[in-house]
Amino acid sequence: MPEKTDVRLLLDRLRAFKPSRRVHLLLGLVLPMIALVGNLWQFRIFTIDDAYISFRYARNLADGLGLVYNAGEYIEGYTNFLWTLLLALEAAIGLDPVVMSKVMGGASACGTLYFTYRLAERLLPFGLFPCVATWLLATSTLCAGYSVFGLETAFFTLLVTAGAYLVYREEESSDARALPWSGLVFAAAGLTRPEAPLFLGLVMLTLGRRFLSRRNIVRGLLFVVPIGLHLLWRKAYYGDWLPATLYAKTGDLERQLHGGLAYMKGYLDFLGPISWLGLVGAVIGVLRRSREAIAAIAITVLFTGYIILVGGDWMPHHRFVAPIEPFFFLLIGLGVRRIAETRNLLLLALIVLGGVFFGIDRTKKLNKTNRRFVVQEYRGHMATAGAASDWLEEQPPGKIAIGDIGLVGYRTNFPLLDTLGLVDPVISRLPGGYTQKLGKGFTDRIFGEMPAYIVIIVNGDCDRPVMAGSRLIYNDPRFAPNYFTGHRIRLGGDANWCIYEHRKHREKVAAAAQG
């Protein structure tokens, strides 16, 4: 009997146990932060090709050429205005934009982790269980990888997460005349990515009667005015209300919807069964009438719909999902912590056991993804775009027609004709979806420019093009009489990156050398 009494006392103590605030900070913020920094360091070597597009815009601005990709061509081939301006500022004072993009991205990821912790505490005060959302974020491939791949992803995620937190904190203030800084934070997000209005709008809708309050109207104005000024500047500078990237990446709705659904299914499959706990958290949040939880639900659902509508993204590991991961993880964490607060020993045991298995699986996936980027993607990028850049840098300057414009364009600094249309005013407006803007207008644009170099993926002895666009270029009657194989980069098997050079370009260079 005494033994049973001791067991009961132990169980009673367990049910009554509540870690201190310091323990929660350690387990829910400090340790996840350390894990995140370690994961950021592992992924640091790789830079995604598209990041170099912004680096070139930034360098050109710092060099006095304006916010352009090719000198004298005013086309907005980026969707990260504020990010590019920050890179340009750093380039102007002699800092390397490649390195600084990783520093800013890593710092942004750490900031996002902090605000995720603060939002989690607002959703449900910490009791028995530490913050779960921060651990999910710290071990996320999207958070760790895309924070240091050179893109604006982590910076944007920080701004919308911080903005959401600030809105709810500001609403608790008794000073109705205090400046709602959240409006400016969301404005910065809107200048970084075009999706920011969705985040701010949904957060503001959860304010209920306060939606039309003086503070919220000021908040809205602080957001709208900078965004409106940027819109007017865009029209005056580039001659268009929308960036060229929007035209280049859309145009085939059916294809986009199929691609977007597959994209989100792939993400949920990668995340695993724990994603179902997001539904549990959503139900709990609605029952608790938590504004923060309802905002997280709305942001997760509607942004998922947006991802499906635009067809996802070509980049590996679901980059587009990154901005909503903190909100989705908050819902998952709410579900886990609310179940834990029942203090049911069986449920607690299942949570702990499930957490162990999930942690092991997540670590394996993180390491596997790290190997893919650091080994396969990095080596592949260097073997293709890197090798092409090496060769082209040794050649006489001339316009290059290429689809993967990032690294090649940044390193050579030659004029580029983007065959995918991101920085091309003609191809971006052609009918068809992204990478499928083909037809007479496509080849007419290529051969109307007659670039000095054309880079395409071709099998065999540079005589069997692989992609549809490459075949159109290679089989066009204007190609063979004007171009010869200048360089071949073997990729293994039968595939090559082939660089064709214009005959007259070579003749002019030879004549100039003799003269």
Describe it.
- Helix 8 (153-171) runs antiparallel to helix 9.
- The relative contact order is 0.10.
- 63% of the residues lie in helices and 6% in strands.
- It has helices spanning 2-16, 21-43, 51-62, 81-92, 97-123, 133-138, 141-146, 153-171, 181-192, 196-205, 214-238, 244-249, 253-271, 277-287, 291-310, 325-340, 345-393, 406-412, 440-449, 468-475, 503-514, and strands at 400-402, 416-418, 453-459, 464-465, 483-492, 495-502.
- It folds into two domains: 20-240 and 251-341, no CATH class; 376-514, D-Maltodextrin-Binding Protein, domain 2, CATH 3.40.190.
- Strand 5 (483-492) and strand 6 form a beta hairpin.
Nearest-integer average pLDDT? 89
User: Can you count the helices?
Assistant: 21
Secondary structure: helix percent = 55-70%
Tertiary shape: elongated
Strand content: 5-15%
What is the radius of gyration?
A: 26 Å
What oligomerization state is this entry in?
single chain
Low-confidence stretches: none
The SSE string, one letter per element, is HHHHHHHHHHHHHHHHHEHEHEEHEEH
Largest sheet: 6 strands, mixed
Number of strands: 6
Which structural category do the helix and sheet elements fall into? alpha/beta
Task: Tell me the number of structural domains.
Answer: 2
How far apart the termini lie comes to 107 Å
